[in-house]
Automatic annotation (TrEMBL):
Residues 1-24 are annotated as: Disordered. The gene is LOC109867008. One of its GO terms (molecular function) is cGMP binding. It is a multi-pass membrane protein. GO terms for biological process: retina homeostasis; visual perception. It is found in: Membrane. The chain crosses the membrane at residues 53-71, 91-111. Its main location: membrane. It catalyses: Na(+)(in) = Na(+)(out); K(+)(in) = K(+)(out). Keywords: cGMP, cGMP-binding, Ion channel, Ion transport, Ligand-gated ion channel, Membrane, Nucleotide-binding, Sensory transduction, Transmembrane, Transmembrane helix, Transport, Vision. Residues 1-13 have a biased composition (Pro residues). This is Cyclic nucleotide gated channel subunit beta 1b.
Length: 587
C-alpha cells in the first residue's frame, strides 16, 4: 500500500483591512426617550365627534380659547387709546396676536368639525368662521391699527360656553359666579378709562381742568376717573366744552344703569348660592313658631331642632325626593340604582327576584333620619314597612325593663322585611328597635311593594315562599300563642343554637313542625285542647280553676285564655263559682 499524501499546512489567516476593522467595532450610541406625557401627546388620536357636556379635554381646550379671547377683549381698547403700542415693541404685540389667531385656527380645524350640539332634538355640527375675517390685510395701507382685530371679539360664545361647562364641573359654582360678575364690573371701568384717555387726547392733554393732565401713570389715573364716574362718587371737575359735557352726560347715564345691573346680578348670584340655606331657615322658623303656638314641651322642641340641624348638615337638604320629582323616570332610576342598589342587593329576601322589579322598588325607597333614642318600631305594632340601614346603628332591645340590648344592627343590615309579605295576620313587630346614635334609614312601604309585585307574579311567588319559611322559623323559635314552657328548652332549638353543622337536619324537622302547625291552624282548637296545651306549657298535669286564674294572670287578655275560663266555669257547679277570685277583667 502507498502512503497517504501529506496534507498541506493551513494558510496563515489574512489580516483584516482597516475598513473591516472599523465595521466590526461596536458603535456606541445614546437613544434619548422623551417624557411619558410627550409620548402620550404624540400618540393621542382625536375622536370622530366631541360631546361638549362630558369631554374634559374639550373643556381644557376652551380654557385656552377663552384666554386668547380675553387677550383681545382687554388689550385691543388699551392699544387703541393709550400710547402703549410703540415701534420698539410692535413685534411683541404681533407675535402674541398671531399666537391667539393660531389657537382660533386650531379650534376651527380640529375641534369645531367634531363638536356636537343639539338643534330641534338632533345632534349636528356647526362651524363659526366670522371671527377670522382677515382685516389685518389693511395693515399695509393704514398701518398696524388694533381696531382691525375687532372681529376676534366675535368669539364671545366660546367664553359663555366655557363658563357653562366650568360651572357644571365645580362643586361650589357660586364662587366662580361672584368672581365673574366682579370681572364684568371691572371691564366696564376698563373700557370707560380707555374712552376717557381717548377723549382727553382728542381735547388735548392738560388743555382744561376736566381732561387728563398727562402726569403720573396714565392708565391708573384714567381708571380712577372711571370709578368715580360710574359709581357716582362725586368730586369730579366740571366739564367746560361741549364735547366734555356730552361725554360726561353719557358717562353718568351709562354708569347708573351699568352699576345697578351689576349690583342686581351680584344679588341674584348670592341669593342663588344661599337659596338652600334660606329655605332651611324658613322651614325651621315656621316649625318652631308652630310648636311655640301650641305650647309643645321644650324637650320635644329641642329634638325637632336637632333633627333639622343634623339632616341639613348630613344631606344638605331636608327632602331628597324633592330634587328627583322633576326628573324623568329613566333618570330617577339611574340615580336610584347608583345610590341604593348596592344596599338592596345585600337583602337575602330579594335575591333571585326579577332585576327590573328591584329597579322599580329602588324608586320607592325614601330616606328618614332618626335621632338617638328614637323608636324605629315598637313591639306589638302592625308592621307596614321594611327598613334598610344606610348609615348609623340601631339596637334591638327588650327584657323586663325594656333596655336589654339583644343585637346591634349596622349599615347595610335589613329588618322588618317579613312584615311586607305577611298575609292574614302575623305582621306585628316582635321587638323594639331603637336608634343608637344618629341613624339614616331607607324605608319601603308595604303598599308600594304590592303595587310593584302586581307586574311580577313570579317574583311575588318567590317572595311569598321565602316569607312563609322565615315566618315559620321565627314562630318555632318564639312561640307567640302560648308562653314558653318552664322546663328545659326544645331539643330542636338547642341543636340549632349549639350545633350549626346539623342545620340541614334541623331544617327538615322545622318544616315538619311548621306543617303540623299549619294543619292545626286550619281547624280551630277546642277549649279542651287549649287548656291541655296551656297546662303542658306551665308544666302541670292538673290545674284547678283558682290555680288557672293565678297562673294565667299574664294571659288574661288573650281570647284563647277566656275560652279556657268559660270551659272551666261550665264544668263546675254554680255554688263553687262564688269562691273563685275573679277580678273586673273577667266580669
Amino acid at each position: 500500500t502507498s502512503d497517504p499524501a501529506p496534507t498541506p499546512p493551513p494558510a496563515p489567516p489574512e489580516e483584516p483591512k482597516e475598513e473591516e476593522i472599523e465595521e466590526q467595532q461596536p458603535r456606541l450610541c445614546c437613544k434619548v426617550m422623551p417624557p411619558r406625557w410627550i409620548r402620550a401627546l404624540l400618540h393621542y388620536r382625536f375622536p370622530a365627534s366631541i360631546d361638549p357636556f362630558t369631554n374634559l379635554v374639550y373643556v381644557l381646550w376652551l380654557f385656552f380659547v377663552t384666554l386668547a379671547w380675553n387677550w383681545n377683549m382687554w388689550l385691543i381698547p388699551v392699544r387703541w387709546a393709550f400710547p402703549y403700542q410703540t415701534p420698539s415693541n410692535i413685534y411683541l404685540w404681533l407675535v402674541t396676536d398671531y399666537l391667539c389667531d393660531l389657537i382660533y385656527i386650531l379650534d376651527i380645524l380640529v375641534f369645531q368639525p367634531r363638536l356636537q350640539f343639539v338643534r330641534s332634538g338632533d345632534i349636528v355640527v356647526r362651524l363659526r368662521l366670522q371671527f377670522l375675517v382677515p382685516l389685518e390685510l389693511f395693515y399695509f395701507k393704514t398701518g398696524i391699527n388694533p381696531l382691525l382685530r375687532f372681529p376676534r371679539l366675535l368669539k364671545i360664545m366660546s367664553f359663555f360656553e366655557f363658563n357653562d361647562r366650568l360651572e357644571g364641573i365645580l362643586t361650589k359654582a357660586y364662587v366662580y359666579r361672584v368672581i365673574r360678575t366682579t370681572t364684568y364690573l371691572l371691564y366696564c371701568l376698563h373700557c370707560n378709562a380707555c374712552l376717557y384717555y381717548w377723549g382727553s387726547a382728542y381735547e388735548g392733554l392738560g388743555s382744561t381742568q376736566w381732561v387728563y393732565d398727562g402726569q403720573g401713570n396714565s392708565y391708573i389715573r384714567c381708571y380712577y376717573f372711571a370709578v368715580k364716574t360710574l359709581i357716582t362718587i362725586g368730586g369730579l371737575p366740571d366739564p367746560t366744552t361741549l364735547f366734555e359735557i356730552i361725554f360726561q352726560l353719557i358717562n353718568y347715564f351709562v354708569g347708573v344703569f351699568a352699576f345697578s345691573i351689576m349690583i342686581g346680578q351680584m344679588r341674584d348670584v348670592v341669593g342663588a348660592a344661599t337659596a338652600g340655606q334660606t329655605y332651611y331657615r324658613a322651614c325651621m322658623d315656621n316649625t318652631v313658631k308652630y310648636m311655640a303656638s301650641y305650647r309643645i314641651p321644650k324637650d320635644v322642641q329641642n329634638r325637632v331642632k336637632t333633627w333639622y340641624n343634623y339632616t341639613w348638615q348630613s344631606q344638605g337638604m331636608l327632602d331628597e325626593q324633592e330634587l328627583l320629582v322633576q326628573l324623568p323616570d329613566k333618570m330617577r332610576l339611574d340615580i336610584a340604582v347608583d345610590v341604593n342598589y348596592d344596599i338592596v342587593s345585600k337583602v337575602s329576601l330579594f335575591q333571585g327576584c326579577d332585576r327590573q322589579m328591584i329597579f322599580d322598588m329602588l324608586k320607592r325607597l325614601r330616606s328618614v333620619v332618626y335621632l338617638p333614642g328614637d323608636y324605629v318600631c315598637k313591639k306589638g305594632e302592625v308592621g307596614r314597612e321594611m327598613y334598610i340601614i344606610k348609615a348609623g346603628e340601631v339596637q334591638v332591645v327588650g327584657g323586663p325593663d325594656g333596655k336589654t340590648v339583644f343585637v346591634t344592627l349596622r349599615a347595610g343590615s335589613v329588618f322588618g322585611e317579613i312584615s311586607l309579605l305577611a298575609v292574614g295576620g302575623g305582621n306585628r313587630r316582635t321587638a323594639n328597635v331603637v336608634a343608637h346614635g344618629f341613624a339614616n334609614l331607607f324605608i319601603l312601604d308595604k303598599k308600594d311593594l304590592n303595587e310593584i309585585l302586581v307586574h311580577y307574579p313570579e317574583s311575588q311567588k318567590l317572595l311569598r315562599k321565602k316569607a312563609r319559611l322565615d315566618r315559620g322559623i321565627k314562630t318555632t323559635i318564639q312561640f307567640t300563642i302560648f308562653p314558653p314552657r318552664c322546663s328545659a328548652p326544645s331539643p330542636i332549638v338547642t341543636e340549632m343554637r349549639h350545633s350549626p353543622r346539623s342545620r340541614a337536619k334541623w331544617r327538615e324537622k322545622l318544616q315538619e313542625r311548621v306543617g303540623r302547625r299549619k294543619k292545626r291552624e286550619r281547624h280551630e282548637l277546642s277549649p279542651k285542647a287549649l287548656k291541655a296545651v296551656f297546662m303542658w306549657r306551665k308544666g302541670c298535669t292538673f290545674m284547678s280553676l283558682c290555680t288557672l286564674l293565678q297562673r294565667g294572670r299574664p294571659e288574661r287578655e288573650e281570647p284563647w285564655f277566656l275560652k279556657i275560663i268559660q270551659l272551666c266555669l261550665k264544668s263546675h257547679r254554680p255554688s263553687f263559682c262564688f269562691f273563685i277570685p275573679i277580678d273586673s277583667s273577667f266580669s
